[in-house]
Amino acid sequence: MKKTALKLRRGGLSVKGNSIFKSLDLTLEEGGVLLITGPSGSGKSSFFRMLLGLACEDEGWESSVELFLSSRPGWVSQNPTWDLMGNWVKEEAGMKELQMLGAGDLYERRCTELSHGEKTITALAGAFSKDILLLDEPGVCLSKENRSALDSLLKKTGKTALIIDHTPEFLDTADRFLSFDRDPPSEVSREEAAGYLERIPDYCRPEPEGTGLLEVRGDLELSLPGGSCVGVSGDNGSGKTSLLASIAGVSSAADIKCSWMGRPLRGIRKRRGIVSYVPQEPGRFFLARTAGEQAGAWGIPEDILTRFGLSGGMDRPVETLSAGEKQRLAIAGAFSAPVMVLDEPTYGLDAASMEILFEGVREKCSGGGIVFISSHDRRILERLATCGVNLVA
Question: Are 143 and 393 in contact (CB under 8 A)?
Fold first, then answer.
């Protein structure tokens, strides 16, 4: 008979007086894999905070729960930059686990040199030293090969795992499914989970017209007419973020020179009002206290907030926003520029939020704007991109 790895009774959580969930009961045996689904902002990541004891009262959290964990979990958050505390990868993870994830070459690297996906791999390798895993959207920034390696490692090691995801990637890996789309959160069948996770918006992209508005020269050669959506793909560490940050003018990691309507764009100042940039983990750059104050600092009009599903709850502290809500707020802040550069913008987005993103890209391109978008999800790029750039590490 298998031992109990996790047992939770009457779990409830609120922050600053706002209830997130209540009456959650869950028991998970050793070796079980639980896939957690639900809309952005429904409390999935907050549930992990409660399990880890990070829902602190002095930060406004209130939790009530009877909880048993057979051992301290290994956690991979939505922000892998925050997961890595050492200077070197070898201080964070063992060679064995890295090799099992197909990333043994990272062992002697500095953490500051890693791409977002490589940081996720390092955090995953470190977490696998534990018997219980809490994985918050672990696959969204991983290449197809790395996602396959993670799936194989979960099956091979037989670890107890709780996985939050908005994609069908781990449907076949999991043996149980918990939906936060219900009150209280409760278990659903594999078929119900699949029906929720496999939704993706239909999309008819406009065809680009006219001559090149944006010229890109250097490591990448592009002449882009209005209405273009450039899909950027490539393995982890291939340089996607460096390329996009250089196009946006916030980095010189790639040799990139841009011109807009024949006018050179030298540095970030010349790009102001023309090129906007949404980096990975955009919440790191929120400086205001509440979502409304952040929207005001960026000058986001009310109609744009409504379009991105952000018209309510703007008095909430920014630290209580989910990853998907932070993504939508950052994209809304970037929407006024004719050229939008979006680095892994689907991170934290549920099906409804994905539809909002698709509609925003469609509107931008239909109006003659230009969008750059990077993703490891081929379904996204196949539907959105009018042309593509694939980088090789």
Answer: no
CA 146/CA 152 separation, integer angstroms: 10
Token pair for residue 159?
A: 């670890």
Q: What is the CA radius of gyration of the chain?
A: 21
Q: Based on the domain organization, do 265 and 156 belong to the same domain?
A: no
Do 190 and 336 sit in the same domain of this protein? no
For residue 91 the two structure tokens come to 């201080």
Structural domain contains residue 98: no
With a threshold of 0.90, does the pTM exceed it?
Answer: no
pLDDT per residue as tens digits for the range 65-74: 899 999 999 9
In the three-class reduction of DSSP (H, G, I as helix; E, B as strand; rest coil), residue 272 is classed as: coil
Backbone angles phi, psi at 337, to 5 degrees: -75, 145
How many other CB atoms are there within 10 angstroms of residue 251's CB atom?
17
**CB crowding 163-190: b at 16 or more within 10 Å, else e:** bbbbbbbbbeebebbbbbeeeebeebee
Q: What is the DSSP letter of 180?
A: S
Indicate left, alpha or beta for 41 from its phi (over 0: left) and psi (-120 to 50: alpha). Answer: left
User: Which range scores top for mean pLDDT: 25-29, 139-143, 145-149?
Assistant: 25-29
What ranges make up the beta strands (E) of the chain?
A: 4-15, 18-29, 33-37, 61-69, 74-76, 132-136, 160-164, 176-179, 186-188, 209-218, 222-226, 229-234, 256-260, 263-265, 275-278, 339-343, 370-374, 387-391
Cα(352)–Cα(364) distance, rounded to whole angstroms?
A: 19
Distance CA 393, CA 381 (A): 19
Dmax over CA atoms of the chain, in Å, equals 71
Q: Please name the residue that has the structure tokens 């908005």.
A: 166
Torsion of CA 236, 238, 242, 245, to 10 degrees: -70
Tell me the per-residue pLDDT of 274-313, one tens digit each, with 9 for 90 and over: 999 999 888 888 999 999 999 999 999 999 999 888 888 7
**Domain closes at, from 165, 197, 229:** 197
Encode pLDDT of 13-32 as tens digits. Answer: 998 788 889 999 999 999 99
Q: Which of 194, 148, 139, 170 is nearest to 344 (CA)?
A: 139
Where in the sequence is the domain holding 15, given as residue range(s)?
4-73+130-197
Measured from the Cβ of residue 221, the count of other Cβ atoms closer than 10 Å reads: 8
